[in-house]
Design goal:
By secondary structure, the protein is an alpha+beta fold. It is built from twelve helices and ten strands. Helices cover 50% and strands 15% of the residues. The strands form three sheets. It has a four-stranded mixed beta sheet with strand order 1-4-5-8. A four-stranded antiparallel beta sheet has the order 2-3-7-6, with no helix packed on it. Strands 9-10 form a two-stranded antiparallel ribbon. The protein is globular, with a radius of gyration of 21 Å. The structure holds coenzyme a persulfide (COS).
Length: 382
């Protein structure tokens, strides 16, 4: 195995690291207050090429390997997680369906705009009655001449408030469902019959928003079917298989920042006449977080490296999502504990991470769904 990172990716990593420290850290507190990423920051994210890391160069992206994407996302997650979330859908669930299953024309139409960040892409699978059970969706798509009429509701769609194009899964055959009855569509924001609700109020991830999409006889051109009619469930599963992997990098980066903040605090906080870093109870917590980060980075890089080489790794990707998201939950809990009362204060970054990382065990498939996927694959293999 060779995790050597090419020179140009190393340079990108350095620029992102500097950008995080000099530009993003200073605006974190402001975003907690305003719930908005300042527009000039979005422009900076675009200039760095961060919207198009995964999109091949022929479609205007940087087209770097998954190992390299993990390196970059790890750096970006050392700032408020809203920044990665802002660029995350374009690199992941909002573009991968087009990349994997789009026609050449669809790729040429959408990918350059998504790669540059001129457009934002989003992924609409979840519904009020279809969360973990993705095949239970109720949104329908009925063909009428050159268009499909979509009816239904999609829920908690990340970046819906800023997205121009959505990958939407809808039922085209109620009986067949996951096996031939779900179709993926590319739906534009300005589609007649589509309403995007106001963002929901959430526990964390200030600056990153989720909204619902309401379809009322929304007219989607038949040319906007993504992949084959009836193959939409597989389109969605393939997208999630890939999207879940880079979430592991977000967890590792966030945990690393939590560790750095904890070390800095432990060295300067004096109790019982000496810095608390000299207390074994604190040292053990630091050691546990550092060890878990090391293990998670290893599994993440190995899996990314193997997927880069063309392997299909549903089980391992689910393991990465499961283990890294659970790990960062423990790391955040320890970081709050090390910070004591300070860790419970709104102006302390670990308080924000504690709330934000709670979502990672839920979105793009809960920990329970990851365990189910791992177990099914294990049983299939045996
Ligand atoms: N890649 C490609 N195809 C896949 C796949 C994958 N990873 N997983 C399943 N499929 C295919 C199956 O092969 C099957 O087709 P065939 O019978 O032709 O082989 C079809 O899809 C149905 O699969 P399955 O029977 O496993 O479907 P289930 O309804 O049991 O659901 C899970 C599978 C639980 C894996 C799915 O519902 C899921 O991922 N749920 C979580 C959804 C989620 O992450 N939501 C978060 C919000 S979206 S950001």
């Amino acid at each position: 195995m060779d995790f050597e990172i090419p020179e140009e990716v190393r340079l990108l990593q350095d620029s992102v690291r500097r950008f995080v420290r000099e530009v993003l850290h200073p605006v974190e507190a402001e975003i907690e207050e305003t719930d908005q990423i300042p527009p000039h920051i979005v422009e900076e994210l675009r200039k760095l090429g961060l919207f198009g890391l995964s999109i091949p160069q022929e479609y205007g992206g940087l087209g770097i390997s998954l190992v390299a994407q993990c390196v970059v996302f790890e750096e970006l997650a050392k700032a408020s997680l809203c920044f990665r979330s802002r660029v995350g859908t374009n690199n992941g669930i909002g573009s991968l369906g087009i990349l994997f299953d789009g026609t050449e024309e669809q790729k040429r139409t959408y990918l350059p705009k998504l790669a540059s960040g001129e457009w934002t892409g989003a992924f609409a699978l979840t519904e009020p009655n279809a969360g973990s059970d993705a095949a239970a969706i109720e949104t329908t798509a009925v063909r009428q001449g050159d268009v499909f009429l979509l009816n239904g509701r999609k829920q908690w769609i990340t970046n819906a408030n800023v997205a121009q194009v959505f990958t939407v899964m809808a039922l085209t055959d109620r009986e067949k469902r996951a096996r031939g009855g779900i179709t993926a569509f590319l739906v534009h924001r300005d589609t007649p019959g589509l309403t995007i609700t106001k963002p929901h109020k959430t526990m964390g991830f200030r600056g990153s928003h989720v909204c619902d999409l309401i379809f009322e006889d929304a007219q989607v051109p038949a040319t906007n079917v993504l992949g084959k009619i009836g193959d939409g469930f597989k389109v969605a599963m393939k997208v999630l298989d890939r999207g879940r992997l880079t979430i592991g990098a977000v967890c590792v980066g966030a945990a690393q920042r939590l560790l750095e903040l904890s070390i800095a605090h432990a060295k300067q906080r004096v109790q019982f006449g000496k810095p608390i870093a000299e207390q074994q109870a604190i040292q053990f917590m630091l050691a546990d977080t550092a060890t878990e980060i090391f293990a998670c980075r290893g599994m993440l890089r190995e899996t990314a490296w193997r997927v880069d080489r063309g392997e299909r790794l549903t089980k391992e990707v689910a393991m990465v999502k499961l283990h890294c998201s659970e790990m960062v939950g423990r790391a955040a809990d320890r970081a709050v504990q090390i910070h004591g009362g300070m860790g419970y204060m709104r102006d302390c970054p670990v308080e924000r991470y504690y709330r934000d990382v709670r979502l990672i065990r839920i979105y793009e498939g809960t920990s329970e769904i990851q365990r189910l996927i791992i177990a099914r694959e294990l049983l299939k293999e045996s």
